[in-house]
Amino acid sequence: RILILDFGSQYTQLIARRVRESHVYCELHPYDVGEQFIRDFAPKGIILSGGPASVCENATPRAPDIVFQLGVPVLGICYGMQTMAAQLGGAVENARVREFGYAEVRARGHSTLLKDIQDRVTAEGHGILDVWMSHGDKVIRLPPGFKVIASNAASPIAGMADETRRFYGLQFHPEVTHTLQGKAIIDRFVHTICGCGTDWNMPDYVEEAVGRIRSEVGKDEVILGLSGGVDSSVAAALIHRAIGEQLTCIFVDTGLLRLNEAQQVMDTFARHLGVKVTLVDASERFMQALAGVTDPEQKRKIIGREFVHVFQEQAAKLKNARWLAQGTIYPDVIESAGAKTKKAHTIKSHHNVGGLPETLHLKLLEPLRELFKDEVRELGLALGLAPEIVFRHPFPGPGLGVRILGEVKREYADMLRQADAIFIEELKASGWYEKTSQAFAVFLPVKSVGVMGDGRTYEYVVALRAVETRDFMTARWAELPHSLLAKISNRIINEVRGVNRVVYDISGKPPATIEWE
Ligand code: XMP
């Protein structure tokens, strides 16, 4: 397995994903995890990520010395290369001109890392790579034992290698897709240079994870809050595969779910997979708690609080439960570790379940902690979950509560559910569901005048929102075809009583957010 030491680059997670895509297990840890940790990890290779710091300043982050003493291959990327150069006796200079964006570099010599990897060959027979650069500093003098393996006009030392010690540095970013041969370079490092096999694959992982859960949990009972989302669904299927009847899932119908959602969850998990699921209809309780409340933040707080109460009541009935299972995934773990304090870590796990573990005195079981979202999906499929569940758009915790603007009422939720179902059905039928990252309807409690048949109507408005995004931090509104929008609008107005107008949201994030509240 490969250890990635994180110096804070925005691309560090991508390095981990690329390594996993090469079917090699890897973990990402802060650069200062400590020598003992690195020793115990026993990596077959180490990758030093990029980062925002400059080697030329005082007291900049350095790779622990052990990295260069273990005798395993090391690949430094961008800042990782610069600190490697500085620490091993080379020199780094603060370049006056930043090099940012696409660049061409020429592969030089016969390095194991880049040999025969190229996008094209010049008339003189030099291999050329199209790469992505993003750096201010550059290496100006090689450390002893190193040779140049890539260069261009802006960075005469765009790549370096000490083949004896198997230390490599790249000024450009092989982990981003803009570097066309990036995957080949990562493959070369982890397989050829580090000698890792291709043993990271889902069917094996399922067996391994099942074994781990069994030995961790023993004969104890486990509870899991099922939300119908991808992560908790996959966690439930995996834990059930491992310990069967010892798992009880709790599914809370808040009254703020999508059309037939509770039914679908029961069909999939209880009927099809044979998982024990307790369905709690708490919709009346949620509606009462939300009556008269219009402020979005207050609504969120009330929904979170009620959820915890309902969950606790159910959990208290399971006297033998010792574990609380959660669908925490690797990006959540990395994010919390990013703060680099144990404290931040705990705060995040608590935050994820709204304080559940504290009050329930249960141990945490998080079987997806080391998986990326696409791996969670792959795992779900390997466990036999339907693609409709595994590739479902995300749905916020507070559900329709933040998609009914202002006061939440059951009658509004019912209208919204129908409109939303029509929207999603038509997106799926036209192939647009897969092309968008998230799509949903929003209920606007304002009335406008319309005409239907010969009569005047005075009814509510539904807004449609569909966005494309990779990380949900920024998003573009989806350019759905007008003919599709027309069809959806017609259906909603004809089929949903109480709605006579449909609008399409054409705001990006930022400045708007994806949800309306
Ligand atoms: P915004 O509206 O902030 O949403 O652009 C970004 C993504 O987060 C989801 N979201 C939530 N998810 N609990 C959740 O589990 C929440 O309270 C919550 N609020 C927003 C939203 O659906 C989108 O995918």
From TrEMBL:
<dbReference type="Pfam" id="PF00958">
    <property type="entry name" value="GMP_synt_C"/>
</dbReference>
<dbReference type="InterPro" id="IPR029062">
    <property type="entry name" value="Class_I_gatase-like"/>
</dbReference>
<dbReference type="InterPro" id="IPR004739">
    <property type="entry name" value="GMP_synth_GATase"/>
</dbReference>
<keyword id="KW-0067">ATP-binding</keyword>
<dbReference type="Pfam" id="PF02540">
    <property type="entry name" value="NAD_synthase"/>
</dbReference>
<keyword id="KW-0436">Ligase</keyword>
<dbReference type="Pfam" id="PF00117">
    <property type="entry name" value="GATase"/>
</dbReference>
<dbReference type="GO" id="GO:0005829">
    <property type="term" value="C:cytosol"/>
</dbReference>
<dbReference type="InterPro" id="IPR025777">
    <property type="entry name" value="GMPS_ATP_PPase_dom"/>
</dbReference>
<protein>
    <recommendedName>
        <fullName>GMP synthase [glutamine-hydrolyzing]</fullName>
        <ecNumber>6.3.5.2</ecNumber>
    </recommendedName>
</protein>
<feature type="binding site">
    <location>
        <begin position="227"/>
        <end position="233"/>
    </location>
    <ligand>
        <name>ATP</name>
    </ligand>
</feature>
<keyword id="KW-0658">Purine biosynthesis</keyword>
<dbReference type="InterPro" id="IPR022310">
    <property type="entry name" value="NAD/GMP_synthase"/>
</dbReference>
<comment type="subunit">
    <text>Homodimer.</text>
</comment>
<keyword id="KW-0315">Glutamine amidotransferase</keyword>
<dbReference type="InterPro" id="IPR017926">
    <property type="entry name" value="GATASE"/>
</dbReference>
<dbReference type="InterPro" id="IPR022955">
    <property type="entry name" value="GMP_synthase"/>
</dbReference>
<keyword id="KW-0332">GMP biosynthesis</keyword>
<keyword id="KW-0547">Nucleotide-binding</keyword>
<dbReference type="InterPro" id="IPR001674">
    <property type="entry name" value="GMP_synth_C"/>
</dbReference>
<comment type="pathway">
    <text>Purine metabolism; GMP biosynthesis; GMP from XMP (L-Gln route): step 1/1.</text>
</comment>
<feature type="domain" description="GMPS ATP-PPase">
    <location>
        <begin position="200"/>
        <end position="392"/>
    </location>
</feature>
<dbReference type="InterPro" id="IPR014729">
    <property type="entry name" value="Rossmann-like_a/b/a_fold"/>
</dbReference>
<feature type="active site">
    <location>
        <position position="173"/>
    </location>
</feature>
<dbReference type="GO" id="GO:0005524">
    <property type="term" value="F:ATP binding"/>
</dbReference>
<feature type="active site" description="Nucleophile">
    <location>
        <position position="78"/>
    </location>
</feature>
<comment type="function">
    <text>Catalyzes the synthesis of GMP from XMP.</text>
</comment>
<feature type="active site">
    <location>
        <position position="175"/>
    </location>
</feature>
<dbReference type="GO" id="GO:0003921">
    <property type="term" value="F:GMP synthase activity"/>
</dbReference>
